[in-house]
Write a structure and sequence with these properties.
With 65 residues, the chain is mainly alpha-helical. It is built from three helices and two strands, in the order αββαα. 68% of the residues lie in helices and 6% in strands.
Length: 65
């Protein structure tokens, strides 16, 4: 397995594993409970991480050329 494929595990671990630690209503971040902010943040970061994996994967480089 390529090392950058391990990046795909990061959102999975953060959302499921981190949920046990951040399952709090307070503090509020941007007017929403912290847990909801955590989930939204990782949903956005998941897209960013998948884009990074896409750009690093040599199979996709061949298709772009």
């Amino acid at each position: 397995m390529k090392p950058y494929y391990l990046l795909a595990l990061l959102p999975f671990i953060a959302i499921l594993g981190g949920a046990a630690f951040v399952n709090k209503v307070e503090p509020y971040v941007l007017g929403i409970p912290f847990f909801l902010f955590w989930i939204i943040t990782w949903a956005v970061l998941c897209s960013v991480i998948m884009f990074i994996i896409y750009r690093l994967d040599p199979i996709n480089k061949e298709e772009r050329q």
